[in-house]
Amino acid sequence: MQRVLILGVPIDPVTQDEAVQRLSQMLTDGSKHHVMTPNNEMLVKASKDRTFKSLLQSSELNLPDSMGLLWAAKRTGHLLPERVTGVDTVERVLLSLSSGCPVFLLGGRKGVGRRALEKMQKENSNLVGEAFEGSPSEEDAPNIIKKINDSGARLLLVAYGSPAQDFWINQHLLNLTSVRVAMGIGGTFDFLSGSIKRAPKWMQSSGLEWVWRLLMQPSRIGRIYTAVIRFPLLVFRG
Predict the structure, then answer these.
(1) pLDDT given for residue 214 in this prediction
(2) Fewest Cβ atoms nearer than 10 Å: which of 62, 68, 145, 179?
(3) In this structure, is the dihedral angle defined by the CA atoms of residues 166, 34, 182 and 95, taken in order, positive or negative?
(4) Concatenated DSSP letters for 194-216?
(5) Buried b (16+ CB within 10 A) or exposed e, 192-222
(6) How far is CA 177 from CA 147, 154, 181, in A?
(7) Nearest to 36, CA basis, from 62, 5, 57, 9
(8) What percent helix, strand, coil does the chain show, rounded to 5?
(9) What are the tens digits of pLDDT across the range 20-30?
């Protein structure tokens, strides 16, 4: 499938089912893969940061993680079939994993990664994994790399926020001996653990999830302004 360019960033026109299938294939093909979940805010960041934009252009799978990307694609005469969120994708993959495919959850504050893993293990008794908060600091990298390698993880989920999480993956993936898929997933652990409640489905599908996020986390107002105001302006300017 031909990727859709939005502000110079390639987005994969996949459905949720296709995204899960692609990830499942990546976990077993013997290669290493970096998966990203672009949204409005990330594309605004990339418009000012050439290094981050280059990273988005080089990742093997970019999931359309916001309704704004679907709108932007349509405006330029292209089609993204549906929004494919990192949260839903990660949840479905974790629920499908067998004991032969360990996972490592890296990042998340105050034990949220551990709680997310434990919740997923209650729903999938075959899920094997470890969680560690760590930090994106280079001083912590050797210890983190050792923990991941010792775990034998094939799937690595990194929640250091964008763009730190994906820079970390890009820099260290080749040193992670067993990892086949590394994915930057932002606040996914918060949702999977139940620490933050997701917006109702109708708000997610109508592009109004930002209203819910603002009500739940008023401190996000700057980020929401970037996603809701600055991103459309950049698209209009083309």
Answers:
(1) 66
(2) 145
(3) positive
(4) TSSPPPPHHHHHHT-HHHHHHHH
(5) bbebeebbeeeebeeeebbeebbeeeeebee
(6) 11, 9, 11
(7) 62
(8) 50, 15, 35
(9) 999 999 999 98
